[in-house]
Write a structure and sequence with these properties.
CATH class: Alpha Beta
Order of helices and strands: EHEHEHEHEHEEEHEEHEHEH
Distance between the termini: 31 Å
Number of helices: 9
Structural class: alpha/beta
CATH superfamily: NAD(P)-binding Rossmann-like Domain
CATH architecture: 3-Layer(aba) Sandwich
Number of domains: 1
Strand content: 15-25%
Strand order of the largest sheet: 2-1-3-4-5-9-12
Length: 254
């Protein structure tokens, strides 16, 4: 099977590409580094020749509501239209568990708009919602660091390994789930601030992690566990503690 991965050089996308290849299928990476610009369709039609399924693991440069919404909706509509024109059978879209329970946070509203755009297109869609990744604390530490101090939002999360999400996306591409929307999460509920401190300790970094309360209803929802798994969410390992001792925790950039 030939499967295209939009955002195939990103955190989860790269793992999806690896999982597709490991399973004996052909992965086509849709990214600017491969000459394919999803913002203006450059190279897209040619890249989709012979592709049976598209996996969308793209992410914008901005988490602001307007820019992120424009990116997600435009890219999704473009993948739907170009995929349909090239005879692609299905689209698999990566989203986030619990975002419909966190109002007022722009990035989550943009992801909801992406889901709507995906379902409005001509191709059948499987939406895979995942919780925050084990890699999430490292990403925030990199962005929110000021000298020896890093600010981490107070959140209750149920993190899952990005590699596991990539493997799940590959599975959804090869064997579509029965339900249109499926959810996956890690096995344990964690405190994001404590996760960041454990990561700093494991890396022997001289960095002080400072908890920050996200204001408003969105911040309260994050603290109250609105982003955690529900009764219908599939729980998959490894745990964060197990991930910390593995090679993925030491990948460059994380």
């Amino acid at each position: 099977m030939k499967i295209a991965v939009a955002g195939g050089t990103g955190v989860v996308g790269a793992y999806a590409v690896q999982a597709i290849a490991d399973a004996g299928h052909e992965a086509v990476v849709l990214s600017r580094s491969r000459g394919i610009d999803l913002r203006d369709e450059t190279g897209l039609a040619q890249a989709l020749t012979g592709v049976e399924v598209i996996v969308d693991a793209t992410n914008p440069d901005s988490v602001g509501r307007s820019k992120a919404t424009a990116f997600f909706t435009e890219v999704t509509a473009r993948l739907q239209a170009a995929g349909s024109a090239q005879g692609v059978a299905r689209l698999v879209t990566l989203s986030i568990v619990g975002i419909d329970g966190v109002s007022g946070y722009g990035y989550y509203q943009a992801k909801l708009a992406q889901e709507v755009a995906a379902l409005a297109g001509p191709l059948p869609v499987s939406i895979v919602r995942a919780t925050q990744f084990h890699e999430f604390p490292a990403q925030i530490l990199a962005r929110a660091r000021l000298g020896p101090v890093a600010a981490i939002p107070v959140m209750r999360v149920q993190p899952v390994a990005a590699r596991t999400v990539g493997q799940f996306l590959m599975g959804a591409a090869i064997d579509p789930p029965r339900d249109q929307t499926v959810e996956i999460a890690g096995p344990d509920v964690e405190d994001l601030v404590i996760m960041a401190r454990r990561l700093v300790q494991a890396r022997h970094q001289r960095l002080k992690v400072m908890p920050v309360l996200v204001p408003g209803a969105a911040g309260k929802a994050m603290r109250d566990g609105k982003l955690l798994a529900t009764a219908t969410t599939k729980l998959v390992g490894p745990s964060f503690a197990e991930w910390l001792t593995g090679e993925d925790a030491g990948r460059p950039g994380f």
